[in-house]
UniProtKB/TrEMBL annotation:
<protein>
    <recommendedName>
        <fullName>dTTP/UTP pyrophosphatase</fullName>
        <ecNumber>3.6.1.9</ecNumber>
    </recommendedName>
</protein>
<feature type="site" description="Important for substrate specificity">
    <location>
        <position position="12"/>
    </location>
</feature>
<feature type="site" description="Important for substrate specificity">
    <location>
        <position position="152"/>
    </location>
</feature>
<dbReference type="InterPro" id="IPR003697">
    <property type="entry name" value="Maf-like"/>
</dbReference>
<feature type="active site" description="Proton acceptor">
    <location>
        <position position="69"/>
    </location>
</feature>
<keyword id="KW-0546">Nucleotide metabolism</keyword>
<dbReference type="GO" id="GO:0005737">
    <property type="term" value="C:cytoplasm"/>
</dbReference>
<comment type="similarity">
    <text>Belongs to the Maf family. YhdE subfamily.</text>
</comment>
<keyword id="KW-0963">Cytoplasm</keyword>
<dbReference type="Pfam" id="PF02545">
    <property type="entry name" value="Maf"/>
</dbReference>
<keyword id="KW-0378">Hydrolase</keyword>
<dbReference type="GO" id="GO:0036221">
    <property type="term" value="F:UTP diphosphatase activity"/>
</dbReference>
<comment type="function">
    <text>Nucleoside triphosphate pyrophosphatase that hydrolyzes dTTP and UTP. May have a dual role in cell division arrest and in preventing the incorporation of modified nucleotides into cellular nucleic acids.</text>
</comment>
<dbReference type="InterPro" id="IPR029001">
    <property type="entry name" value="ITPase-like_fam"/>
</dbReference>
<feature type="site" description="Important for substrate specificity">
    <location>
        <position position="70"/>
    </location>
</feature>
<dbReference type="GO" id="GO:0009117">
    <property type="term" value="P:nucleotide metabolic process"/>
</dbReference>
<dbReference type="GO" id="GO:0036218">
    <property type="term" value="F:dTTP diphosphatase activity"/>
</dbReference>
């Protein structure tokens, strides 16, 4: 059976794959995440997922390599990870009382096949309570996450509704990923 390499150091992606029953080895890709400004959210996540997978595949061509990338998009504009408290505050205020889209791109590469796709989930935030917002941005949670929140943790306090694959928001669209991995003869154990 081919063995799976995850081109990611994201703790969420590792946990999602493990909980779903996959065995794999995780390795950092070191791929550049710089993109042209004109690129759309769906193009961005597919391109970055591909770069991450390709960087690891180049070093391990006998494996099946999976890369992924997640961004939040508000009215077509990409929100990455906030670097400062001010940036996190601004991002979360922008998301307040509105719907945004979470895009995750996935690339799976082997010698025999290449599969690249993205999944989109719509998330609506309730009107943010200023006290909760200040407490949230004073925690460490927003800073390694696209859009500055984590739906799987305290960030769920802001979420009014979601339409689409929940796991896509956390960082990996499990349903489509499982199907795609099957086409590489990689199956979860149950
Ligand atoms: C919106 C949202 C994003 N995120 C995370 C998923 C991704 O890990 C992160 C977006 O950053 P990515 O650049 O996609 O991934 P990463 O840097 O964490 O890991 P790697 O490049 O090694 O694969 O935001 C959540 O955990 N919860 C959420 O609700």
């Amino acid at each position: 059976m081919p063995s799976l390499l995850l081109a990611s150091q994201s703790p969420r992606r590792k946990a999602l794959l493990t909980e779903t029953g996959f065995s794999f080895t995780a390795t950092a890709s070191g791929a550049s995440e710089v993109l042209k400004d004109s690129v759309s959210p769906s193009q961005a996540v597919e391109e970055l997922a591909y770069r991450k997978a390709q960087a690891v595949f180049d070093a391990h061509p006998d494996h099946v390599v999976l890369g992924a990338d997640t961004v939040v998009a508000l009215q077509g504009h990409i929100l990455g990870k906030p670097e400062t408290k001010e940036e996190a505050r601004r991002m979360l205020r922008d998301l307040s009382s509105r719907s945004h889209q979470v895009f995750t791109g996935v690339a799976i590469l082997s010698r025999a096949r290449k599969v690249v796709f993205h999944e989109e989930t719509e998330v609506r935030f309730q009107t943010l309570d200023e006290k909760l917002l200040e407490a949230y941005i004073s925690s460490s949670e927003p800073y390694d996450k696209a859009g500055g929140y984590g739906i799987q943790a305290k960030g769920r306090l802001f979420v009014q509704s979601i339409h689409g694959d929940y796991f896509n928001v956390v960082g990996l669209p499990i349903c489509r990923t499982v199907r795609a991995l099957q086409s590489f003869h990689i199956y979860p154990s149950i």
